[in-house]
Amino acid sequence: MVIANRIGDVELELTTFQQIYLEVSEDEVDETIQEFQAAGLKCYPVGNVVKSLRTCNFCKGELEEGMPVAKEINERTAGKEVPFTVKMAYTGCPVGCGEPLVNDIGIMKIRDKYNLYIGGKSKGKDAEAGTLLFENLEPEALYLYIDRFLAKYQELGRKREGVAKFIKRIGFDEIKQSIK
């Protein structure tokens, strides 16, 4: 309802990353954010930041155990400034409906452990699947490696250099060793 009250003549966009973009005037930004947050909605900046975590919710058998981890990852990462927009995806089973292999950072839950992928790219003639960085992780280790990878990207990534290009320039093995 809070979104409907704000729309009026405003342009609204629903993205593939389960985000809503609203165009509001500069003098209404703070008030709009406060209203949305009071209704339980998260507000993140646009631009070169980590996007909110995209998930799937079709695996009803995996939903209960996996979603708390997905929510924690989102809380820790969404809105962080990075050299170029980072898209993350999470899926609760190996079917991969959340498309973790074609995003900059992908998380796949397999039973009670997590696999972490980096460098997926879904668009362009050089599209490719992400590479398995670490497997069979407990949640705390998963959080740690995601945090370390993002810190390395913040430190060494060039402005407007996507994650896949960053990994190719630095080297997958070098990145893996530096965040281990």
From TrEMBL:
Gene3D superfamilies: Sulfite Reductase Hemoprotein, domain 1. Keywords: 4Fe-4S, Iron, Iron-sulfur, Metal-binding. GO terms for biological process: sulfate assimilation. GO terms for molecular function: 4 iron, 4 sulfur cluster binding; heme binding; metal ion binding; sulfite reductase (ferredoxin) activity; sulfite reductase activity. Residues 51-179 form the Nitrite/sulphite reductase 4Fe-4S domain. PANTHER family: ANAEROBIC SULFITE REDUCTASE SUBUNIT C, SULFITE REDUCTASE [NADPH] SUBUNIT BETA-RELATED. This is Nitrite reductase.
